[in-house]
Amino acid sequence: MILDDMKYIAKDLASVPLELADRFARVPGIRAMVRHERCNGCTACVRKGFCRFGAIEMNDKKANVDVERCRGCGRCTHLCKRDAFTLEVRPPRVVTDTLRRIDDRITGLMK
Ligand code: SF4
Ligand code: SF4
Is 7 inside a domain boundary? Predict the structure, then answer.
């Protein structure tokens, strides 16, 4: 049964235009950031293309991640010899908004 579902999903995914898949494929709520105290400015991440989405750039001799481009794939975290990249987990906005609404509701009920 699960295998049938997987086949069905895989078939649908194959019909998603590549441009659309590329635009929206990201790990929700996860993005990379640079621990600047570890980054020595060697520029290897940019020169060697650690990021396949062009999200890493150098500013003031330190690497930085463009959060709009970062897909949260984690590739950069394995490649920097200084272990400067780390992944930051942030719940997607829809989750934080829902939690806030629930909290407001409970607070209202307790008054
Ligand atoms: S993040 Fe790593 S690879 Fe990139 S410049 Fe800094 S030390 Fe070099
Ligand atoms: S986590 Fe992936 S998408 Fe984000 S900067 Fe690193 S390599 Fe690029």
Answer: no
